[in-house]
């Protein structure tokens, strides 16, 4: 059995609003490069919520690392910060303007969770199922063809 290699991208940053926008663009560009355009909106929303939590709650600093990894048809997005306190989902009041970030991550992702790293902080992560890549291939072999033929989509895997 031939296994597909892992694809991995890491970004270190201070979780400040201007940096969060930059990371969204980096994540979007990386997913386009990996031909995972269908995951851009979910991944960008999820990473924005996790980075916003670091910006709002992390102590003693706002430094963090964002990682995305594609392995075995699963995209994992994780954010490591230096605050050892673990996040908790709270039910937000109907008119509240904050407090729904982790619930949104849970809603758009396949799974999510938190890994404590003791006094060095924590990692909050979520996963998204990666669609099979598709390519356009001709219906008939190109060798010896004399006229154009319609193309069809095929799943490559």
Structure, described:
The chain is of the alpha+beta class. It contains three helices and seven strands. A hairpin with a 2-residue loop joins strand 2 and strand 3. Helix 1 packs antiparallel against helix 2 and helix 2 packs antiparallel against helix 3. The mean pLDDT is 83.
Helix/strand-derived class?
alpha+beta
Radius of gyration: 20 Å
Q: Main sheet?
A: 5 strands, antiparallel
| Strand content range | 25-35%
Distance between the termini: 12 Å
Low-confidence sequence ranges? none
Order of helices and strands: EHHEEHEEEE
Helical proportion? 25-40%
Q: Helix count, per DSSP? A: 3
The counted number of beta strands is: 7
Q: Strand order across the biggest sheet?
A: 1-2-3-5-4
Q: What would the average pLDDT be, to the nearest integer?
A: 83
Approximate shape: globular
């Amino acid at each position: 059995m031939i296994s597909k290699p892992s694809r991995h991208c890491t970004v270190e940053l201070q979780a400040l609003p201007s940096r969060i926008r930059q990371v969204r663009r980096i994540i979007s560009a990386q997913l386009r490069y990996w031909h995972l355009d269908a995951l851009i909106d979910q991944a960008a929303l999820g990473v924005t919520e996790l980075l916003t939590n670091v910006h709002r709650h992390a102590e003693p600093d706002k430094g963090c690392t964002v990682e995305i990894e594609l392995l075995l048809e699963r995209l994992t997005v994780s954010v490591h910060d230096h605050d050892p306190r673990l996040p908790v989902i709270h039910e937000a009041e109907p008119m509240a303007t904050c407090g729904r970030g982790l619930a949104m991550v849970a809603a758009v992702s396949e799974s999510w969770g938190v890994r404590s790293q003791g006094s060095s902080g924590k990692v909050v992560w979520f996963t998204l199922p990666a669609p099979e890549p598709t390519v356009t291939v001709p219906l008939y072999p190109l060798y010896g063809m004399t006229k154009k033929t319609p193309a069809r989509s095929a799943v490559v895997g």
